[in-house]
Structure prediction request, 184 residues.
Amino acid sequence: MDNDVSAGIVSTTVAGRLALAITLLAFGLGTTGVIDGVGASDAVTVAHYVGGVALFLVGLLALRDGAFGAGYAALGALWFTWAVSDPGSADAAGLLLLLFALVALTLTVAGGDTLGQLTHGLLFLAMVVLAVAAFADSSALAKVGGWVAVVSGAVAWYAATAALAHWPTALPGRAAGRGVTAAG
Prediction:
């Protein structure tokens, strides 16, 4: 792979993770209700433009660069749909959240680096909890799902920042066996 392509893959990955982080943090914090007067509906503009349009475009650029950008494009399309739609019922909202969860599950098992898998795994968990909360009409469960979305957004933010700042992205491993000691 030449340097231009690898630089493009890094930049689209970082941009995708930042867009996902901003969207998840806004959506998650709005859902928790931890900030007085801010609800999930206040995240609609962020979800529309950052989570929807920007993430979708990053996905297309990643596909152009030869990277696996379909995940960003799918998430962008879902965020855009969430932002512009009026689900009409709690069950319709729950269905959309389950679709989010399926995409996140696919991205989790598709592989990638540890922080990416953790981000998508937490996104999957958040969307499942939020879908159940919508079906059960449970505000307490919705708050739990919001907090999981916040943690997922924080992991995505860290992953993007770590790539740019050359911070560690993995915990140091343990020696491979009993009785093995590190030198020095």
User: Anything to note?
Assistant: Residues 1-6 have pLDDT under 50 and may be disordered. The longest helix spans residues 3-32. The chain has six helices and no strands.
